[in-house]
Design brief:
- The chain is α+β, with helices and mostly antiparallel strands.
- It has two domains: 96 residues, Fumarylacetoacetase, N-terminal domain (SH3 type barrels), CATH 2.30.30; 289 residues, Fumarylacetoacetate hydrolase, domain 2.
- The chain contains ten helices and 27 strands.
- The strands form seven sheets. Strands 6, 7, 8, 13, 14, 16, 17 and 22 form an eight-stranded mixed β-sheet that branches. Strands 9, 20, 21, 25, 26 and 27 form a six-stranded mixed β-sheet that branches. Strands 4-3-2-1-5 form a five-stranded antiparallel β-sheet.
- β25 and β26 form a beta hairpin.
- The protein binds calcium ion (CA).
- Calcium ion binds next to loops.
């Protein structure tokens, strides 16, 4: 059925215009409830479609599907079936949820088996993450950091506009939204001190990022060209790269981030597919100087995805401290994947590739407290709860992201993390 852009498709499950999970989205995640083991589901409004239950009811007859992948506690095997199958599942669910389709809508018994209220479900890390890379692809963020810590007239290092800088991070300390993280302890070298001190970080920060999940593997020695990269990208989620700035400052030379980053990173639970983001493609930044041939690309490879960070102090309401957009990224995902594999590095299904902090050009769009409070010189007022240069114990960091359509949004849900006091 074709629809005009003015009348978006509707589901018989009602969703408000600002709901993250309308019928246009249908992201994949792993959920569990008191009586259902962890398994794949698709979000719609306030509900989750239990894909295994749908299959048992003979309503998920999609080419290539294997029943056993629908009861596993990670999406890796489901994703490994390939985009033809996972897109087929999404399309089938979309048909069943269409307002005019009575198959599930008018069968109360079936609805009870197939639909789970999101409020009763506990979300899990959706993929078994084998490897995790963190890029550094926002020119505004890299410029801000370079300005603060090196040279305002020479903020970007000489390689920055020639390759998407990145590092390999720790995969097993990536947790799902809602998991609290303890303030880390470590070595710091306070300004003017003669020797390092040890203790809880005094500069705990967030980094506003998105990450893509790979859906196809390569062998060692194989490279992915930019024009094929989207075949390898299953979807995106929000990524909060928690960072201890004082620990980072002392440890990072010469090999880069280590204990300042590996104590916990937080992801949103739903993987929004590239297909759901298709209407929101944008051109992205002009790249000057020209990139080497293996990083060249054609067409719109960036996405218009609005991002927001709020700090919710203990006992208070969320206070928005940043509004940014994925479109600000200088390097796009296709270039990141091409660069990651250009030397023959293999990739696996379920790998995570984070964008790096996404800052925009204006102070209101900076993606970390380091930049928002400009190295502590411009504290942020949290009405009724003092001010923040960094994150306090008891604060909850809440990230949100969505692509805005006409009358609906394709959203990511929350990426939320409460900071607990350090263990003393
Ligand atoms: Ca980062």
């Amino acid at each position: 059925m074709t629809r005009s852009a003015e009348t978006p498709q509707k589901s018989w499950i009602e969703t408000a215009p600002d709901c993250d999970f309308p019928i246009q989205n249908l992201p994949f995640g792993i959920f569990r409830t008191s009586d259902r083991s962890a398994r794949p589901g698709i979000a719609i409004g306030d509900y989750i479609v239990d894909l295994s239950a749908l299959f048992q009811a003979n309503l998920l007859n999609v080419r290539g599907i294997i029943a056993s992948v629908l009861t596993q506690p990670y999406l890796n095997d489901l994703i490994s079936l390939g985009k033809n199958t996972t897109n087929g599942i999404r399309e089938r669910v979309r048909d069943l949820l269409d307002e005019n389709n009575p198959d599930v809508r008018d069968n109360l018994n079936l609805r009870e088996r197939v639909l789970v209220r999101r409020s009763t479900a506990e979300m899990q890390v959706p993929v078994q993450i084998g490897d995790y890379t963190d890029f550094y692809s926002s020119i505004d963020h890299a410029t801000n950091v370079g300005t603060m810590f090196r040279d305002p007239n020479n903020a970007l290092l000489p390689n920055w506009k020639h390759l998407p800088v990145g590092y390999h991070g720790r995969a097993s300390s990536i947790v799902v939204s809602g998991t609290p993280i303890r303030r880390p302890k470590g070595q710091q070298m306070p300004e003017g001190a003669e020797a390092p001190v040890f203790g809880p970080t005094r500069q705990l920060d967030f980094e506003l990022e998105v990450a893509f999940v790979t859906g196809k593997s390569t062998d060692l020695g194989q490279s992915i060209p930019t024009e094929k990269a989207e075949d390898y990208i299953f979807g995106l989620l929000l990524f909060d790269d928690l960072s201890a700035r004082d620990i980072q400052k002392w440890e990072y030379v010469p090999l880069g981030p280590f204990l300042a980053k590996n104590f916990g990173s937080v992801i949103s639970p739903w993987i929004v597919t590239l297909e759901a983001l298709e209407p929101f493609r944008v051109k992205g930044a002009d790249q000057d100087p020209a990139v080497l041939p293996y990083l060249e690309f054609e067409g719109k490879k960036n996405y218009d995805i609005q991002l927001e960070v709020a700090i919710q102090p203990a006992g208070g309401n969320p206070h928005v401290v940043s509004k940014s957009n994925v479109r600000h990224l200088y390097w796009n995902m296709c270039q990141q994947l091409a660069h990651q594999t250009v030397n023959g590095c293999n990739i696996n299904v379920g790998d995570l590739y984070a964008s790096g902090t996404i800052s925009g050009p204006d102070p209101g769009s900076y993606g970390s407290m380091l930049e928002i409070a400009w190295k502590g010189t411009k504290p942020v007022k949290i009405p009724g709860f003092g001010e923040r240069k960094f994150i306090d114990d008891g604060d909850v960091i809440i990230m949100r992201g969505w692509a805005q359509g006409k009358g609906y949004r394709v959203g990511f849900g929350e990426c939320r993390c409460e900071i607990l006091p350090a263990i003393t």
